[in-house]
Amino acid sequence: MDFPTKITIAGVGLIGGSIGMILRDRENPPEIVGFGHRQSTLDTAMDRGAIDWGTTDLAVAVEGTDLLIICTPVRGIIPLLEKAAPNLKTGCIVTDVGSTKKFLVEEAERVIGSGVHFVGGHPMAGSEMTGIGSATPNLFRGAFYILTPTSLTESGPLAVMQQLAAHCGARVVTLSPDVHDAMMATISHMPHMVSSALVNAASQAQHVHAEADLLALAAGGFRDMTRIAASSSDVWVDICMTNRTETVDAIESFRKHLGNISDAIGSGDEGTLRSLLDSARELRAALPGSIPAEEVAVRLRVLIPDKPGVVSEVTKIVGQNDLNVLDLELLHLKDGEEAVLELSFSSESDLRTAETVLRDNGYYSSLISR
After folding, report:
1. Whole-number Cα distances in Å, 333 to 18, 76, 202, 307, 370
2. Strands, DSSP E only, in the chain?
3. Closest by alpha carbon to 60, among 84, 41, 90, 40?
4. pLDDT means per 10 residues in the chain (370 residues)?
């Protein structure tokens, strides 16, 4: 099956817009049509090079299209497909980017007409930022792009989607919808619920300890673990409601393991506590791309003016001294005039050198407590 010559993207936000940018950069690019409910968003998508043209009329958007990519929130996918189905030509491929698959694939295969092909898809890329303004052609590079074929999926449409995902720079994985949902509940959906619970727990503690601004004191570890709690609640309600059983099972498993840690602390069982922490530490270090904890020095906090170009100036100074930054995070202060840039290095000596060269260039820095 040939690669599509006309592609319609329904929902040109972060994911849809990024896909559009990538596809329009192909040699002999297909015609990319955007569909959305606001013409202003479609105009922005055109200005950013994500689509060739856009319309708020779904029937017009999908007319003659070879591939329809639905990039709406999860619970909006099937209603949109139901509206689009009567206007899809024979041979059209339909895919989605939803984070849950079993419910969506079953419903999509029921809704699509004869001669139309559905291939479930889930690009595991994104950020807390949303909208076409955050779209980038590099969004999927190195990320996993999961496809979820069933016994009804034909080889030709699946091959087209594998080609599209690979062109995005992603690593293509094929899973059944059931396996996908069980895995995502453990590594994605449950962690987001845990992140939200952590923030709510800290907020409750703030009321108990009103004499201190608890959240303002939160160090890097708390921010790292709660970063995803800043994501859209609408998106995550949709995800959880379409993957309820698996997500609840994952949360209950987490509750059990957290209980084991709590029991060890409460009983003063240092041996069990150490064993549980060491086990988690070793497993975490074995994840692809992980940096062993003993190789990461304490982080450096650099006070900078909160204005464009300063972060790149700081990283340039560090790079010119052959220092490799493992990670960085920018924290905007409340007054809006200054910000804090936190840098992590692979060795204590690199960190000390960075502290010196930045001070020589007029930047105040300090070590972050372990």
Report:
1. 30, 37, 20, 12, 22
2. 6-10, 31-35, 53-55, 67-70, 93-96, 117-123, 144-148, 171-174, 300-305, 325-332, 338-345, 365-367
3. 84
4. 95 95 93 96 96 98 98 95 97 96 96 95 79 89 93 97 95 96 94 92 72 60 79 88 96 96 97 95 77 57 87 92 85 73 82 88 70
Q: Give me the sheet containing 338-345, strands edge to edge.
A: 325-332, 338-345, 300-305, 365-367
Q: Cα separation of 233 and 195, whole Å?
A: 12
Yes or no: say if 223 and 199 are a contact pair by the CB < 8 Å rule: no
Torsion of CA 176, 181, 187, 191, to 10 degrees: 170
Rg of the chain's alpha carbons, rounded to an integer? 24
**333 near 304, Cβ under 8 Å?**
no
Burial letters 239-254, b for 16+ CB under 10 A, else e = bbebbeebbeebbeeb
- What domains can you pick out in the chain, each with its CATH number? 6-175 (3.40.50.720), 180-285 (1.10.3660.10), 293-367 (3.30.2130.10)
| The total number of residues written for the chain in this structure | 370
The rounded distance, in Å, linking the Cα atoms of 148 and 175 is: 5
Token output for 120:
């479930």
Angle 92-125-131 from CA coordinates, rounded to 5°: 80
Supply 20's token pair.
């559009």
Question: What span, in angstroms and rounded, lies between the C-alpha atoms of 158 and 175?
Answer: 12
